[in-house]
Amino acid sequence: MEAKAIAKYIRMSPRKVRRVADLIRGKAVGEALNVLHFTRKAASEPLEKTLRSAIANMLNLEGSSKVDPEELYVKEIRIDEGVTLRRFRAASMGRAVRIRKRTSHIAIKVAEIEK
Predict the structure, then answer these.
(1) Largest CB tally within 10 Å, which of 16, 20, 76, 81?
(2) 112 vs 39: CA distance, rounded Å
(3) What H or E segment, with its residue span, contains residue 36?
(4) Where does residue 45 rank: exposed (0-12), middle (13-18), buried (19+ CB within 10 A)?
């Protein structure tokens, strides 16, 4: 049995979020939450929030009353690029320079550890 959670339009570049996501890929849920809580990166906050949402989705599924949260692991974690907000900044000699403010989509799947 598995459940997923998706967080869209996170105002952080996918490259920065993937660095933190690689720390928890394939780990048990308890260990992953612990790693995210003590990681000193801004990306750990939306990842932890999305992981907690995926766990809650798993516990609220039909027929999942027998599921123990300690028996879950991060089956899949995907960080995709969202829309890019384009802004302009004044440059020398009357020019304008484009600034790209990137966004991310986070998708996390949790599943039961198979015995």
Answers:
(1) 20
(2) 25
(3) helix 29-38
(4) middle
Q: Can you give the residue range of the structural domain that contains 65?
A: 2-112
State the CATH number of the domain containing residue 56.
3.90.470.10
Using one digit for the tens of pLDDT, what is the confidence trace for 34-76? Answer: 999 999 999 999 999 999 999 999 988 877 667 888 889 999 9
pTM of the model: 0.90
Tokens of 25: 């890929």
Q: What is the largest CA-CA distance in the chain?
A: 67
Neighbours of 15 (CB within 10 A): 12
Residue 27 phi, psi dihedral angles, 5° rounding: -90, 165
Please state the domain count of the chain.
1
pLDDT digits (tens, 9 = 90+) for 69-85: 888 999 999 999 999 99
- The token pair that represents 55 in the structure block: 């766990």
